[in-house]
Design goal:
about 100 residues, alpha+beta, three-stranded mixed β-sheet, 3 helices, 3 strands, about 20% strand, elongated
Length: about 100
């Protein structure tokens, strides 16, 4: 989405301004469908964001990990409504080094 692209651009700008900072990226899905397919989709999400950050100027060494977790660790535990499932289809960034 446009909002997501803005967030990726902002994250890249932060990483460029703080070259010693590093992040880990986690991709997630909702609980619909095959577990193996969800794992691949979440991996693809995480890697896409990693590649976009690097394309926008973040250092390759600043992304220490890009991993897909499928439906694990939902932010909306019910995972049973369209709104809840949409919240679980996401990419999270975690600071690995400041």
């Amino acid at each position: 989405t446009t909002s997501s692209q803005t967030q990726v651009q902002n994250s890249a700008a932060i990483l460029k301004n703080f070259p010693s900072a590093a992040i880990k990226i986690g991709g997630y899905t909702d609980n619909t469908g095959d577990a193996a397919v969800n794992k691949k989709i979440s991996d693809d999400r995480a890697r896409y964001v990693m590649n976009e950050l690097i394309k926008l100027g973040a250092g390759k060494n600043q992304v220490t990990e890009a991993v897909g977790y499928g439906p694990e660790h939902p932010v909306c535990p019910g995972n049973d409504t369209p709104e809840c499932k949409a919240q679980n289809r996401r990419v999270d960034l975690k600071v690995a080094a400041k």
